[in-house]
Design brief:
The complex is a heterodimer of chains A (about 80) and B (about 400). With about 80 residues, chain A is an alpha+beta fold. Chain A has one helix at about 20-30, and strands at about 10-15, 35-40, 55-60, 65-75. Chain A has one domain (about 5-75): RPB5-like RNA polymerase subunit (Eukaryotic RPB6 RNA polymerase subunit). The radius of gyration of chain A is 13 Å and the shape is globular. In chain B, β1 (about 85-90) and β2 form a beta hairpin. Classes of the chains: A alpha+beta (about 80), B alpha+beta (about 400). Chain B: Belongs to the RNA polymerase beta' chain family.
């Protein structure tokens, strides 16, 4: 099986810890369901991610150095 | 202290790093300062501050209608795109849909593009040796019977006769035995194989069945991937000056190709955003949408469209974890407001359905407020200003 995370189109995906999540949500003043979504079946998802987890994605941005975005794992 | 790849002194770095600029702009400032060795720290500070002021000034303001601005910014140059579906023989003589049809195909999120293609990068010796690269080509390109030898029908004996070309067989790494076996598996006939000659026929002597068999025989893929009809191999110079072989394919089967030995699974791409989504996930699909739309515009000399607009489009399309199209079946069709949906396309259907289901429009969005003639909740429309009843003395608080 091909290692998807090695592909240059795929940014780094990590599961966000609960403490950090609270910080993010309060910073933007949103609920976790307001975040963009990622499917549980997504090829780039870390193996131990479960529904309800929030994934932190660090992209190489075209406009700044790095852009951090978050996605909520949904079915 | 941050590491900086430019030849500037520490004080300069300190004043530049102190600003609120993104990395890319900081680097530009360093580059400029590097070229002016007689600039003092004060000059550097002034320059950095000026750039920062300009940067902060050009950022999107709160309540700015970014979507509308994006739509206009992509729409206007869109009028200059070629409207025909003519395929421009671009890279390596592979036909690729260009211009407006391609852009529409992308934002509509069509399941398969009009002209699917892949750019296959190779790894290690496969990328540098022509022989090795060809091995990969034969594993990708669909090989049909006519590429391997001649097919003739013997009507007198009711037999199909194939005479294979030994050189081609060796080159494409397939044996006559394998060919015979594949024919038996696919057509359900028993074959007689003698060296490079293969013979078979219908069970009952029937002219129609015989022709039918020949038809089916032509469709069998003996080696390679069914979807990929042609592969072009090109030697290209890379950014670092080295040369390597790159394959361009007509037709795509992204998942299958990534598994093939010799294929560099970290750089190979295809132009089908759904295949990328399926194999690499939603984030890669987002990247691919930006890349493809940007290339489509750049190809037509419209690369002055700011990439942020395309990023916004890609963000919207991938927001819910799946690729959604822009338009009435996707994003516009899933809008909350009845009036906003009705204003877009198929007005009567939306109004009728809304009436049947007793939908309520909260008048939260832009379109519906324009329709009913209320101020929209954007820009100055969303802030309430009142004349101050307090004196100037308290304003400073």
């Amino acid at each position: 099986m091909v290692d998807v995370s090695k592909h240059e189109l795929v940014p780094e995906h990590t599961i966000l810890e609960d403490d950090d999540l609270e910080e993010v949500l309060s910073e933007y003043d949103i609920d976790r369901t307001d975040l963009p979504k990622i499917k549980r079946t997504d090829a780039a998802l870390p193996d131990d991610a479960e529904i309800g987890d929030v994934i932190k994605i660090v992209r190489d941005s075209r406009t700044t150095d790095q852009a951090v975005v978050y996605r909520l794992v949904v079915e | 202290m941050t590491e900086v790849a430019f030849d500037v002194d520490d004080d300069t770095i300190a004043v530049v790093e102190d600003t609120d600029l993104p990395r890319r702009l900081k680097d530009n400032v360093y580059e400029e300062l590097e070229g002016r060795p007689d600039a003092t720290v004060e000059d550097a500070d002034e320059l950095a501050k000026a750039v920062e002021a300009r940067y902060v000034d050009t950022r999107v303001e709160p309540l700015d209608p970014v979507g509308t601005v994006s739509a206009q910014s992509i729409g206007e140059p869109g009028t200059q795109l070629t409207m025909n579906t003519f395929h421009y023989a671009g890279v390596a003589e592979i036909d690729v849909t260009q211009g407006l049809p391609r852009l529409i195909e992308l934002v509509d999120a069509r399941k398969t593009p009009d002209t699917p293609m892949m750019t296959v990068y190779l790894e290690d010796e496969y990328a540098t040796e022509r022989e090795k690269a060809h091995e990969v080509v034969w594993n990708i390109e669909a090989t049909k019977i006519l590429a391997l030898g001649d097919v003739s029908t013997n009507v007198a004996d009711m037999r199909v006769q194939i005479s294979l070309n030994q050189d081609t067989l060796t080159e494409r790494m397939i044996t006559a035995e394998e060919v015979a076996e594949i024919i038996e598996d696919n057509l359900g006939v028993s074959t007689v194989q003698n060296g490079t000659e293969i013979q078979f026929g219908p069970e009952e002597p029937s002219y129609r069945d015989l022709l039918q068999l020949v038809e089916e025989l032509r469709d069998i893929t003996f080696k390679g991937i069914e979807e990929i009809s042609r592969v072009v191999i090109r030697r290209e110079e890379m950014d670092d000056g080295s040369e390597e072989f790159i394959l361009y394919t007509e037709g795509s089967a992204f998942g299958d190709v990534l598994e093939i030995e010799g294929v560099d699974a970290s750089r190979t791409t295809c132009n089908n955003i759904h295949e990328i989504h399926h194999n690499l996930g939603i984030e890669a699909a987002r990247e691919a949408i930006i890349e493809e739309t940007n290339n489509t515009l750049a190809e037509q000399g419209l690369d002055d469209v700011n990439v942020r607009h395309l990023m916004l489009v890609a963000d919207m399309m991938t927001n819910n974890g799946d690729i959604e199209s822009i338009g009435r079946h996707g994003i516009s069709g899933s809008k909350e407001s009845v009036l906003a949906r009705a204003a877009f396309e198929v007005t009567v259907n939306h109004l009728l359905n809304a009436a049947i289901h007793g939908e309520i429009d909260e008048l939260d969005g832009v379109t519906e407020n324009v329709i009913v003639g209320k101020p929209i909740k954007l820009g100055t429309g969303d802030v309430d200003l009142r004349m101050g009843s307090t004196g100037p003395s308290t304003q400073a608080d």
